[in-house]
Amino acid sequence: MNYSFDTICAIATPISTGGIGVIRISGDNSIEIVQKIFSKKITPEVINHGWIVKDGKKIDEVIVLPFVAPKSYTGENVAEIQTHGSPVIINEILNIVLENGARLAQRGEFTKRAFLNHKIDLSQAEAVLDLINAKTQKSAHGAANNLSGALKVKIEKIKDEISSILGKIIASLDFPEDVAEVDYEEIIEKTQSAIDEINDILKNARVHNILRQGIKIAIAGRPNAGKSSLFNKLLNIDRAIVTEIEGTTRDTITETLEIEGISATLIDTAGIRENNTDKVEKIGIEQSKSAIDDSDIVLCLYDGTEGTKKEDEEIFALAKDKKHIIIKTKSDICDNKKTDNEISISSLTGEGIEELKKRIYKEIIGLNPAESEFLTNQRHQHCLRLSLEALNNALIGAKAQELQDLISIDLKAAVTNLGEISGEVITDNILNNIFENFCIGK
Ligand SMILES: Nc1nc2c(ncn2[C@@H]2O[C@H](COP(=O)(O)OP(=O)(O)OP(=O)(O)O)[C@@H](O)[C@H]2O)c(=O)[nH]1
Ligand SMILES: [Mg+2]
Predict the structure, then answer these.
(1) Are residues 22 and 13 in contact, defined by beta-carbon separation less than 8 angstroms?
(2) Where residue 135 falls among pLDDT bands split at 50, 70, 90?
(3) Which protein residues are within 6 Å of ligand 1, measured from CB?
(4) Which of these three, 342, 365, 388, is where a domain ends?
(5) pLDDT tens digit string along 348-379?
(6) Is there a single domain that holds both residue 189 and residue 231?
(7) Could you write out the DSSP letters of every residue in 360-396?
């Protein structure tokens, strides 16, 4: 299908004072529009240096980069104006472009056009969004790989395998005299192999979600266990108040940091103790309990100078169904005996802190963090699960030697669901949902 669109424009750089600002214009008339306001004749596909002029008045000295369709990001004629990085200038030039016939782009409209003009598939379009939003180096790498098509290639391979067996079945159904019925063994083998490959991708889904969204880590323990001290140490700043008074922290405090390349939200909680009558502290303790519930991993602290007590065990029990790490604190002033699974730390000297970070990483990612060749998001995972369900039905059918006509329906459904990942089969609804999350200039 060929799409024809009007000409859109937007500021592509953050609106703040910087070296340069970029205004991007895309559509049939983009280069023409810029020509109307540029001091020199624009030569396509080279760097053009000159002035933006309005009513004979020079507004800013700029660089104009004209890309001729289809050799551009959107696949349309595109002009980019590099201005000086003052918000006033950038906005003024954007207004001049608007006055000369372009309209303001919607969120993600440039990338949507790139998709509709077949410059990228949907998983690559989403990768653009992931790259813009990447909080950590790891998710940026995964997104960059998706942009270069890593996820697309993997899905295409599985889809081709299913399609080849589906093709054989359809041929034998349509031309029963000429084409022999497909061996059930072959259907079972191919279907099973597609199931294994999809399961292989899905087993990393949790890690993919963590890499994209980050993890929540709660620090829990009795009053004075050293929670706020560890919180400050991990953040490298004195964020939370630390005193020798039990019950110093009353509210949960939240900060973000990066642990071994993963974006983490660290939550310092009020020390949990029962039988206290202080109303404020009681509320704080309730908050601590829900912070434990909400987190992906709990750091369970106990005071090394006192050893574990019944009260500590009760607090650790709150985290027993979660990933958790038992931490013995204040190793600088106590013996460093500890059980195998514990980590002994001192927030004062920094002892054990690096080991703790590595352990957090290991708990979250698993023992052998496969370097992510690609990242899946929740939409991809949903499509993969639907495809898996259809393949499992096909497998049951093939094992029971059902009519191949029926098996082919499930195989077709599996292919269709995989096709949704790259956007071959896509509804306007899904499309709008994806691109609404973009920023305006992308
Ligand atoms: N020597 C030593 N003292 C520590 C260490 N960590 C914490 N402390 C001391 O232990 C006391 C309590 O520390 P906090 O970090 O405030 O403890 P908390 O668990 O946040 O306490 P609440 O907020 O009351 O629940 C303070 O006097 C800290 O200086 C450590 O590693 N070594
Ligand atoms: Mg505290």
Answers:
(1) yes
(2) low
(3) 221, 223-229, 242-244, 246-249, 270-271, 329-330, 332-333, 346-348
(4) 365
(5) 999 999 999 999 988 877 644 455 577 788 88
(6) no
(7) HHHHHH-SS-PPPS----HHHHHHHHHHHHHHHHHHH
Q: Which of 14-28, 201-215, 356-370 has the lowest mean pLDDT?
A: 356-370
Looking at the 3D structure of the chain, how many domains does it have? 3
Mean pLDDT of the chain: 89
Identify the DSSP state of 40: S
* Residues recorded for the chain: 442
- Which of 212 and 41 is assigned the larger pLDDT? 41
Q: Identify the three-state secondary structure at position 216.
A: strand
Atom of ligand 1 at shortest distance to CA of 222?
A: 25
Name residue, tokens 């005071």.
Answer: 303
Give the residue from 422, 219, 210, 409 showing the smallest Cα distance to 325. 219
Q: Does 2 map to a domain?
A: no
**Is the pTM value of this prediction over 0.85?**
no
> Does residue 2 register a pLDDT over 70?
no
| Phi, psi for residue 255 in degrees, rounded to 5 | -140, 160
Q: Residues 47, 170: one domain? A: no
Q: What is the pLDDT of residues 309-328, one digit of tens each?
A: 999 999 999 999 989 999 99
Instruction: Report pLDDT digits (tens) over 379-421.
Output: 899 999 999 999 999 999 999 999 999 999 999 999 999 998 8
* C-alpha to C-alpha distance for 43 and 65, rounded to whole angstroms: 9
Report CA(229)–ligand 2 centroid distance (Å).
7
**Nearest residue CA, atom 6 of ligand 1?**
226
Residue 109 near residue 8 (C-beta atoms within 8 A): yes
Query: How many A from CA of 296 to the centre of ligand 1?
Result: 24
Domain extent, residue 227, equals 220-255+270-365
Pairing of strands 297-303, 215-221: parallel
CATH code assigned at 140: 1.20.120.430
CATH number, domain of 77, equals: 3.30.1360.120
Same domain, 346 and 392: no
Residue 440 covered by a domain? no
